[in-house]
Amino acid sequence: RLGVLHVGQRIEEQADFEKIYKNAWADNANACAKQYAGTGALKTDYTRQRTQWGLIMDGWNSLIRYYKNNFSDGFRQDAIDLFLGNYSVDEIEPASPLHVKKDWKFLALPIIMVVAFSMCIICLLMAGDTWTETLAYVLFWGSASFGTFAIILYNGKDFVDAPKLVQKEKMD
């Protein structure tokens, strides 16, 4: 009806158009996903042509989304709440609800866990003179990494970047 195709032509016969359309569709999905989730869209290579590399990138993007959603996205939700009017600023309150002091464990424990886990892997890869020496090092660094991981899990709410603004009460 728009005159894009001649009489008798079918859209399925237009391979070049299909490729351009699918690429535009996938590029749009990536742009929207980057704004919303902080990473490219998942399965865009499926829209184009599914590959093993695309499968690996989907896993990588999922890991990045998990991290961002749990540890660094609270401020985005606060900004959305302010923008949409779900939170109203109280001019009388002197302290900002956005400023929350972090405890020492917020920075120290993840660093200790990463160092301990790295040392455990290094001890496995670079064996000592005897197997008992290697086992002792691996047990020590493994228990240190497991112990700090357990402490982090126990204090999990301190590590999650949750939104700090509360929604205003609904007026009924």
Automatic annotation (TrEMBL):
It comes from the Eukaryota. The keyword Transmembrane applies. GO terms for molecular function: phosphatidylinositol-4-phosphate phosphatase activity. GO terms for biological process: phosphatidylinositol dephosphorylation. The chain crosses the membrane at residues 106-128, 134-154. One of its GO terms (cellular component) is endoplasmic reticulum. Keywords: Membrane, Transmembrane, Transmembrane helix. This is SAC1 phosphatase. The lineage of its organism: Eukaryota, Metazoa, Chordata, Craniata, Vertebrata. The gene is Sacm1l_0.
